[in-house]
Design brief:
Elements (H helix, E strand, L loop, with lengths): L2 H23 L3 H17 L1 H8 L5 H15 L3 H12 L6 H15 L2 E8 L5 H15 L2 E8 L7 E5 L2 E4 L2 H15 L1
Parallel strand pairs: 1-2
Antiparallel strand pairs: 1-3, 3-4
Helix pairs in contact: 1-6, 2-6, 4-5
Amino acid sequence: MSEPASISAGIADRYATAIFEIATEGKALESLESSMTDLATALADSADLQELISSPLLSREEQSVGIKAVAAKMGLDETLSNALALMASKRRLFVVPALIEALRARIAEERGEITAEVISAKALTKTQSEKLAKTLAERVGKTVTINATVDASIIGGLVVKVGSKMIDSSIRSKLNSLQNAMKEVG
């Protein structure tokens, strides 16, 4: 991880911890999760909102006024709205995307869920995805959510990442292993 990304992740993690604990104490995790999803969607869809959180040309006051207006218009959870206002006053809005990811991870952990990153050569069918999720859930002892992506360069098979573990059963990986073995022989 690069140094700026590491710094952003650290800042986001501290804010996420505080927001999560406040929401947990107030029994408002569902409201927080809903607001977080709405904010993530708005960030993905709005170039203006992306500019608001990342532009160094905007003053603290402009960012603060802007993010408060966005939070009010969207009806965001009070804890999240207050945190965004505080982040604006500290010029920390640039970490909002990392904050959303950190909060999602904490909420999933609280619910006993884990996300598996799955890369396949072709898109998985719903049945395949459900079967894989069930198999992984039996292995890790938690509810597994599949985040599937397609990468034709793996030729076939799957690459599955769950937490810190990775299972690479792709044909590309097997061909690379075979190529290395042949280099050792010759």
